[in-house]
Write a structure and sequence with these properties.
The complex is a heterodimer. Chain A is an all-alpha fold. Chain A has a domain at 279-488. Helices cover 74% and strands 3% of the residues of chain A. Chain A contains 19 helices and 2 strands. Chain A has a two-stranded antiparallel sheet with strand order 1-2. Chain B is mainly α. Chain B has a domain at 278-493. Chain B contains 20 helices and 2 strands. Chain B has helices at 6-23, 27-55, 77-104, 110-129, 133-152, 158-188, 193-200, 207-224, 232-239, 242-267, 269-276, 279-299, 304-325, 328-359, 370-373, 375-389, 395-409, 413-438, 454-472, 474-488, and strands at residues 58-61, 72-75. Chain B has a two-stranded antiparallel sheet with strand order 1-2. Classes of the chains: A mainly alpha, B mainly alpha. The interface between A and B is medium-sized, with 29 and 30 residues.
């Protein structure tokens, strides 16, 4: 099968799955089967593209022209390959998890849930494989719209308010800033293709470039750069699987992925590095990392703490882009995958705790490790990975980011990275400690001994937790895939 | 059939059919006959557009009298496109009318309704087809008088008041138009648009021409319902029968936009309108206010028909804004939006008609829980709404793309920002509709409702499918619009 056909197949599978789900919606058994088969099919299609991309090919296909010289087109390059693999693999795990989560918590509207999930994945794959900025923008907006029903899922006043905030921030940044930047690029340069080395360099003045950088970076609200991060905590009203896959992986990674992509192929790394007025990006990313960590420290709601941690971790990627050398961009790209595995584990754990014990706040978690040893063990793994300790994923990406900052001799950036690791430890480790060694001296007697979440949830949690170890042990694949991006 | 007479047939057919309709006695016959006529009109308009795109401008001499003495029907890319939009909307809306009209209008008036509807169609098609200034006025009166009746046939008592308000405003507009045309005739001695455009430049004393320009522009802007001359529109759309709201929203204001294009560009010429007269300075702020205020007021409406009527005022602002740029991309955006908004808003009002048919109400609160009970109707409403916001892959995005591009090309980035801000405001009112339909439970004790009948759903979906199709396949609409824009600006095609 040709590369172009595989790209279309990868888009068609989740969309077809969504249609099928709508048809069989009234039969729960079939609904779960269809979801699982669809997610496996998507991974197969995406994986089938990988060997050729690793070998240096760039499968591409162009569908129709939106305007003369501006086609609706796809092209798979290493970064997109990484993002698509990440999202489609974790979708399978999340499907397993959510089947159990939805039934254990008696959630309504399950067909709608699965349909929107499939459509969100189709959008994420579209973002990953987009061949130009316009195509990317289309799927970027589609992803926002498909995930809105998932955030508003429960239909309570609180959920509706959270969903409203979600939609308002994401759509207003993308329409007011990103779309403006895209159109401006189009009017100024006459192309929106992704080209190595960028399309803006030499075409527009330094000052226009400075303005465009602001518009692009803040326009991609999904990257949750402060002050446009408020949608992410608001989205935490969604059920746990949504927070796990979408608001720890697909949606937020689509945001930082877009930023890396814009940096590499619209501006070009050289332009961003040489460009004096781009320095603010370092400060904004650094500030987001630190401030979000500080806010996370103060959150008692577990999911909110995780959300602010995500805000902070996403800015690692932006920081890597702002440093803009080979090591830093390598670190940033790796962090997309590594943070994905670690954070989804943490959200799965939060959902498992809610399912098994009905607890949502950290202050309620005293001694929960005795009742849920697997869950809290996995939580510890995820937490250590995010702090950046070996032998877990996260160590590599931080290593490259540190190398990148040393290359530039930028010690302020180095300090930000170190301090934030410390903050990560400060807001994650107390949860683990509290779970296994409750305060108040005596371990509280726990009625009923071990009371874990349903098995399927534990399976999903274990897969992603093991994944963080695997990514540490075998980073070579990631490295090989991403090397052409930065010319290493 | 001799294709040479198509231009006049396009107008004569509904004119002749209108009285026949009243004579048919049985409403079902009248409806079937009107449907047939509307489909014939669509076929003819497609043939015309194909011929014009292939051979260029068609000039038809009424009664064989040579222009400028005889009346000329002059068809080019712009008005063929407008004719196609009107007949397409009519061909889709007419089949829908049977159920909707039976539910919303009292029985003895059904035949009258179809007759008057055909007259309205005659007027709108005539305005678009003719190349004669006075003819435009005559057809505008025909369509307006028919529209007053159509609106007045609405079921609530307030429909009469709305029709009366529209009558007053519409008559003022028509009078202004007539005064303007009279002044032009006085100074040039001709009524043929092509001839006028040549002679206007040679008039020694320009003052009456300035006055004519002002009278005509304001007269047309009333028809177009551009802020602040829009006050007739919300009431008219709210209280008219659903099918009429859909038809008028999709066609009447669009024809107003066409007449503005015709007078400003073909007759007076862009140089006169934009350099000697401050049309841009007037039109641009008014359009921007229309976009923001129209959409802003829509947020606070509880009656969905009124909500989308205010949304129309905002969308008309986009069309006028595109015209005010007087550039290729601006005009392309405006012309494309004439088409796209016709599809989207037509579809939305048809969906509201489905809702009215089943629930008897178009209040926002009546939407609660309908997402599950009327899934197709609600999905249609949402798709139309997203189109109004300008979400990618809907046709609304295409229009906004060209409008923002025009603003950026003219170095008017604040205008670009305001256009995008308008999308956000639209998002708020559409968001309210979505939330009500899908995320609020139906009130306890709400009567069970079923999905609307397929005879109503299919027309609704045809319009919205078209708006999706042309959001993806932009080459058809945009190439016609671009050609029209270049022609209006007098650029070589």
């Amino acid at each position: 099968m040709s590369g172009g056909a595989l790209i279309l197949l990868a888009l068609a599978i989740p969309i077809g799955g969504a249609l099928l789900l709508w048809v069989v919606g009234r039969t729960p058994f079939l609904r779960n089967e269809v979801s699982l088969v669809t997610s496996c099919g998507l991974l197969a299609a995406v994986a089938a593209l990988t060997p050729s991309v690793l070998a240096g090919a760039r499968p591409a296909i162009s569908l129709f022209e939106f305007a003369p010289g501006l086609a609706f087109a796809f092209e798979v390059e290493p970064l997109g390959m990484l993002f698509a693999l990440l999202a489609s693999f974790l979708w399978i795990v999340t499907t397993i998890y959510s089947i159990s989560y939805l039934s254990a918590n008696g959630e309504p509207h399950r067909t709608r849930f699965h349909i929107c999930f499939a459509l969100a994945l189709a959008s994420a794959v579209g973002i990953a494989f987009a061949g130009n900025m316009l195509t990317l923008f289309f799927f970027y907006e589609a992803l926002t719209l498909c995930t809105y029903p998932l955030v508003a899922h429960s239909g309570t006043e609180e959920a509706r308010r959270g969903a409203r905030r979600y939609l308002a921030i994401l759509l207003s940044t993308s329409i007011m800033l990103l779309l403006l930047a895209v159109l401006w690029t189009w009017v100024a340069v006459g192309t929106l293709d992704f080209r190595a080395g960028g399309i803006l360099a030499g075409q527009v003045s330094e000052s226009v470039m400075a303005v465009l950088l602001v518009l692009y970076v803040f326009g991609v609200g999904k990257a949750a750069l402060m002050p446009f991060h408020g949608w992410l905590p608001a989205a935490m009203v969604a059920p746990a699987p949504v927070s796990a896959l979408l608001h720890a992986v697909a949606v937020v990674k689509a945001g930082v992925f877009t930023i890396v992509k814009i940096a590499l192929y619209i501006f070009g790394l050289d332009a961003i590095r040489d460009f004096a007025s781009g320095e603010w990006l370092l400060y904004v990313a650094g500030a987001t990392i630190l401030i979000a960590s500080l806010i996370a420290l103060r959150q008692d709601n577990l999911k909110h703490r995780l959300a602010y941690s995500t805000v902070s971790q996403l800015s690692y990627v932006v920081l890597g882009v702002a440093i803009a050398n080979a090591h830093a961009v390598m670190g940033a790209s790796m962090h997309i995958a590594m943070h994905g595995f670690a954070k989804i584990t943490l959200f799965f754990c939060a959902g498992a705790i809610y399912t098994a014990a009905g607890k949502t706040h950290i202050s309620q978690l005293d001694g929960i490790g005795r009742r849920m040893p697997v869950t809290m063990g996995a939580f510890a793994v995820g937490a250590l990975a995010l702090i950046g300790l070996p032998p877990f994923a996260g160590a590599w990406s931080k290593y490259y980011l540190v190398l990148g900052s040393l290359d530039e001799g930028d010690y302020a950036v180095l300090a930000v990275l170190l301090v934030s690791s410390l903050l990560n430890a400060l807001y994650f480790l107390p949860i683990v400690v509290r779970a296994f060694f409750p305060t108040g001296g005596e371990p509280r007697p726990v009625a009923g001994g071990i009371a874990e979440a349903p098995k399927l949830q534990l399976v999903a949690i274990s897969i992603t937790a093991l994944g963080t170890v695997a990514l540490f042990a075998y980073p070579q694949f990631l490295f090989d895939l991403l090397r052409p991006l930065v010319g290493m | 059939m001799n294709a040479g007479h198509l231009p006049i047939l396009q107008v004569a057919l509904p004119l002749i059919a209108a009285p026949l309709c009243v004579l048919l006695r049985r409403p079902a016959f009248a409806w079937a006959f009107t449907t047939l006529v509307s489909w014939a009109l669509l076929a003819m308009s497609i043939l015309l557009l194909i011929r014009v795109m292939a051979d260029g401008v068609i000039s038809y001499r009424l009664g064989g009298w040579a222009p400028p003495f005889g009346i000329e029907y002059r068809l080019d890319a712009v008005n063929c496109f407008v004719i196609l939009v009107i007949s397409a909307v009519a061909a889709v809306v007419t089949p829908y009318m049977r159920q909707s009209v039976a539910r919303e209008i009292t029985a003895p008036r059904h035949n009258l309704f179809y007759g008057v509807y055909l007259l309205a169609l005659t007027g709108l098609l005539g305005i678009a087809a003719t190349g004669d200034a006075f003819n435009i006025y005559v057809f505008m009166e025909i369509s307006s008088l028919a529209s007053y009746v159509l609106i007045g046939l609405g079921s609530s008592r307030r429909a009469r008041a709305a029709a009366f308000q529209y009558l007053i405003m519409g008559t003022i507009g028509a009078t202004f138009l007539l005064i303007g045309i009279g002044l032009l005739y006085m100074m040039t001695g001709t009524l043929n648009l092509a001839d006028l455009s040549l002679r206007v430049a040679e008039v020694p004393d320009m003052r009456p021409i300035y006055a004519a320009f002002a009278f005509i522009t304001i007269g047309v802007l009333i028809k177009l319902a551009l802020f602040p001359l829009h006050i007739w529109l919300p009431n008219a759309y709210t209280h008219a029968p659903s099918a009429v709201s859909a038809f008028l929203a999709a066609s009447a204001t669009k024809v107003g936009a066409y007449v503005l294009l015709r007078f400003v560009f073909t007759l007076f010429g862009p140089e006169f309108s934009f350099e000697r007269m401050p049309l841009m300075e007037i039109l641009m702020p008014l359009s921007l206010i229309a976009i923001l205020v129209g959409s802003g007021v829509a947020i606070f409406q509880h009656d969905l028909k009124r909500l989308f009527a205010y949304s129309s005022i905002g969308q008309i602002g986009y069309i006028a804004l595109g015209i005010s740029f007087a550039s290729t991309s601006g005009l392309t955006g405006a012309i494309v939006h004439i088409f796209n908004h016709a599809m989207m808003k037509g579809g939305i009002f048809l969906a509201l008609g489905c809702m009215m048919y089943r629930t008897g109400s178009v209040e926002l609160s009546a939407l609660h829980g309908l997402g599950r009970r009327m899934p197709f109707t609600m999905a249609a409403l949402i798709i139309g709404g997203l189109g109004l916001v300008g979400v990618p892959l809907t046709s609304g995005f295409v229009s906004k793309w060209y409008l923002v591009q025009a603003a950026l090309e003219a170095d008017l980035w604040p205008v670009a920002l305001l256009i995008l801000l308008g999308s956000l405001v639209a998002l708020i009112y559409v968001g309210r509709v979505i939330e009500a339909a899908y995320f609020r439970p139906p009130p306890p004790g709400a009567p069970a409702v079923r999905e609307a009948p397929w005879q109503m759903l299919i027309p609704t979906w045809i319009l919205l499918a078209a708006s999706l199709y042309f959001g993806v396949h932009t080459d058809i609409t945009v190439s016609v619009a671009e050609r029209g824009a270049e022609m209006l600006l007098g650029l070589p095609a």
